[in-house]
C-alpha cells in the first residue's frame, strides 16, 4: 500500500486530496486549482500546516475544540475504552457504562428538567431526531395535526435532509432542500442588515412577534415546535437584541408549543455559561448538542429532552429511530473526559470572569477601524460587520462576500483563522485562549483589516 504521511511534499498531498477527496461546503474546481491547506498538527490554540506555518485558530476547528488541542487525557480515555469495549450498540434493550455515565452527567449539567439524552453522531443527526421526537410526541398526545416546525431564515441546523430543511440558508435551500414538508421559516433577528430605521429593541420585538403571527396564520393547533440557535453561529454570529428571547419565550409559553434550542455551537461554555439557554434565560423542552460536548475529539451529538416529552415518548412503545453510533462507547468516554476537564479546570468560570470580558473590550475596539461597522460578542463567539459606510450600515458595491473573502485570505497569511460569512468576520476561539493569545488574535485581525482596506481603496 502507498503510505501517505505528514512528511510528503505539500503539493503531492494536495494533488491526491483533489483527486480523491470530495470536501464539504467547497467549490471542487477551485480546490483543484489552489490545493487545500493541509493541517498536520495542533496544540493549545495553534495549528501547524504542512509548510510548518503556525496559525492561531480563532474558530476552534469548526466551533468545537472548546478545551483546545493536544489534551492527552482525551486520547487516553479513547484508548482505554477501545481496549475495554470498542463498540456495542444501544438498540434493543442494551446499554453500556460510558453511555450511562455520560447521560447521567448531562442530566446533572443541563438546565431545568432536561434529564434524558437521545444520542446521535453529530448535530445534524440530532436535529433529525428532534423532528421525529416532536412529531411523535404530539401524535401520542392525540394531536397528529400538530406537525409544523417553525425555524428561521439564515439559521443552520445541519446538512442532512432533515437538518438542511430546518435550516434557512439560501445557498442550501437551492440544492435539494427543503425536502421535509411542514417546516416554516420566519425572519432572523439580524438588526445590522435588516433592522432599517428601527431601534434594536423594537426590531427584536418585531422579529420575535413574527413567530406569533406565523402561529396565528398557520393555526396554533398545527404548530409543534419552534427551533432556534440562542446565537446564530454559522449565519454570522448574529447576536439577537435583548428584547428578542424573552418575547419568544412568552409566545412559546402562551401557545403551548415546544421550544428547541439548538445548542450545537452555544453549548458547553461558548457563551460563558454551560448552555446558551442559560445566558438568555430560555427554557427549552429539547436542546440539540454536539461539537463542544467532546471538544471535537470524537464525533458525538444528541438531543437533551425534558421529563414531559421523554415520558410521553418512552410510554408509547418502540420509538423506531436510532443510529448505529447512538451512544458510541468511545465517543461517550471521550465526551465524559472532556466534561471532567471543563468542570474541574473551571474553564467556563474563567471565560465568564476573565477572558471573555477581556476579549469583549478588545473586540469592541475594532469598531475604531474604518472598515468595521458593528462588533458583537457573547462569551467566546464574536462577529464584526465590514462596511464602506458605518452610519448607513451600507453593503459594499462588490458582490456580497468579496471583501470578507479578501479579509479571510489576509488573516490566513497573517497566521489567523478568522472565518467570513458574507462580509461579516467571525471568531469562536478555544475557551482556553489566554489574554496574551487574545492580544495576538486582535493584532493579527487589525493587520488583516488594514491590508483588506488597502486592497479595496
Ligand atoms: N446545528 C448547529 C447550530 C450547527 O452550528 C451545526 C454545525 O455547525 C449543526 C447543527 C450540525 O452539526 P454537525 O455538523 O455535527 O452535523
Largest sheet: number of strands, sense, barrel closure = 7 strands, mixed
Looking across the biggest beta sheet, what order are the strands in? 4-10-9-8-7-5-6
Q: What is the number of helical segments per DSSP (H or I, 4+ residues)?
A: 17
Tell me the total number of β-strands.
15
Describe the model.
The protein has 457 residues and is of the alpha/beta class. The chain is 42% helix and 15% strand. The protein is built from 17 helices and 15 strands. Strand 7, helix 11 (244-255) and strand 8 form a beta-alpha-beta unit. The model has no long low-confidence stretch (mean pLDDT 97). Pyridoxal-5'-phosphate is lined by residues 122-124, 127, 156-158, 163, 229, 233-234, 262, 264-265, 288, 290, 301. Residues 122-124, 127, 156-158, 163, 229, 233-234, 262, 264-265, 288, 290, 301 line the site of pyridoxal-5'-phosphate (PLP).
Summarize this structure as a short list of keywords or feature phrases.
single chain, 457 residues, alpha/beta, 4-stranded mixed beta sheet, 42% helix, binds pyridoxal-5'-phosphate, Aspartate aminotransferase family protein, pyridoxal phosphate binding, transaminase activity, transferase, PyrdxlP-dep_Trfase
Nutshell version of this structure?
By secondary structure, the chain is of the alpha/beta class. 42% of the residues lie in helices and 15% in strands.
What topology emerges from the helices and strands here?
Elements lengths: L9 H11 L7 H7 L4 E5 L2 E4 L4 E4 L2 H4 L8 H13 L12 H13 L6 E5 L2 H18 L7 E5 L8 H6 L3 H4 L9 E4 L4 H4 L5 H19 L4 E6 L15 H12 L2 E5 L13 H4 L6 E4 L11 E5 L1 H8 L14 H16 L2 H19 L6 E7 L2 E6 L15 H12 L2 E2 L1 E3 L2 E4 L7 H22 L1
Parallel strand pairs: 3-13, 5-6, 5-7, 7-8, 8-9
Antiparallel strand pairs: 1-2, 2-3, 4-10, 9-10, 11-12, 12-15, 14-15
Helix pairs in contact: 4-14, 5-14, 10-11, 15-17, 16-17
Amino acid at each position: 500500500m502507498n503510505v501517505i504521511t505528514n512528511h510528503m511534499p505539500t503539493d503531492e498531498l494536495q494533488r491526491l486530496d483533489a483527486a480523491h477527496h470530495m470536501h464539504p461546503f467547497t467549490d471542487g474546481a477551485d480546490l483543484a486549482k489552489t490545493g487545500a491547506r493541509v493541517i498536520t498538527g495542533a496544540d493549545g490554540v495553534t495549528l501547524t500546516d504542512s509548510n510548518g506555518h503556525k496559525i492561531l485558530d480563532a474558530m476552534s476547528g469548526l466551533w468545537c475544540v472548546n478545551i483546545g488541542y493536544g489534551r492527552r487525557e482525551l486520547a487516553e480515555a479513547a484508548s482505554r475504552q477501545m481496549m475495554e469495549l470498542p463498540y456495542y450498540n444501544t438498540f434493543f434493550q442494551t446499554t453500556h457504562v460510558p453511555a450511562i455515565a455520560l447521560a447521567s452527567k448531562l442530566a446533572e449539567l443541563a438546565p431545568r428538567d432536561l434529564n434524558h439524552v437521545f444520542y446521535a453522531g453529530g448535530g445534524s443527526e440530532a436535529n433529525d431526531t428532534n423532528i421525529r421526537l416532536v412529531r411523535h410526541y404530539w401524535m401520542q398526545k392525540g394531536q397528529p395535526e400538530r406537525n409544523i416546525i417553525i425555524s428561521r431564515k439564515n439559521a443552520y441546523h445541519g446538512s442532512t435532509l432533515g437538518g438542511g430543511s430546518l435550516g434557512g440558508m439560501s445557498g442550501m435551500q437551492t440544492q435539494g432542500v427543503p425536502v421535509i414538508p411542514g417546516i416554516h421559516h420566519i425572519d432572523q433577528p439580524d438588526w445590522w442588515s435588516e433592522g432599517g430605521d428601527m431601534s434594536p429593541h423594537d426590531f427584536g420585538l418585531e422579529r420575535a412577534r413574527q413567530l406569533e403571527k406565523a402561529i396565528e396564520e398557520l393555526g396554533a393547533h398545527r404548530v409543534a415546535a419552534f427551533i432556534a440557535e440562542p446565537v446564530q453561529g454559522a449565519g454570522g454570529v448574529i447576536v439577537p437584541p435583548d428584547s428578542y428571547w424573552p418575547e419568544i419565550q412568552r409566545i412559546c409559553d402562551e401557545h403551548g408549543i415546544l421550544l428547541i434550542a439548538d445548542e450545537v455551537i452555544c453549548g458547553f461554555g461558548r457563551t460563558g455559561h454551560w448552555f446558551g439557554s442559560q445566558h438568555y434565560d430560555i427554557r427549552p423542552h429539547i436542546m440539540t448538542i454536539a461539537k463542544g460536548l467532546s471538544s471535537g475529539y470524537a464525533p458525538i451529538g444528541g438531543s437533551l429532552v425534558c421529563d414531559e416529552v421523554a415520558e410521553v415518548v418512552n410510554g408509547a412503545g418502540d420509538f423506531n429511530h436510532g443510529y448505529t453510533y447512538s451512544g458510541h462507547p468511545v465517543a461517550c468516554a471521550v465526551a465524559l473526559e472532556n466534561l471532567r476537564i471543563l468542570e474541574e479546570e473551571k474553564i467556563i468560570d474563567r471565560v465568564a470572569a476573565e477572558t471573555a470580558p477581556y476579549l469583549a473590550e478588545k473586540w469592541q475596539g475594532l469598531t475604531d477601524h474604518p472598515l468595521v461597522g458593528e462588533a458583537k460578542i457573547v462569551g467566546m463567539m464574536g462577529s464584526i460587520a465590514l462596511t464602506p459606510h458605518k452610519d448607513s450600515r451600507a453593503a459594499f458595491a462588490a458582490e456580497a462576500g468579496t471583501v470578507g473573502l479578501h479579509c479571510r485570505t489576509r488573516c490566513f497569511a497573517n497566521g489567523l483563522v478568522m472565518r467570513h460569512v458574507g462580509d461579516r468576520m467571525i471568531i469562536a476561539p478555544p475557551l482556553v485562549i489566554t489574554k496574551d493569545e487574545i492580544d495576538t488574535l486582535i493584532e493579527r485581525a487589525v493587520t488583516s483589516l488594514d491590508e483588506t482596506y488597502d486592497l479595496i481603496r
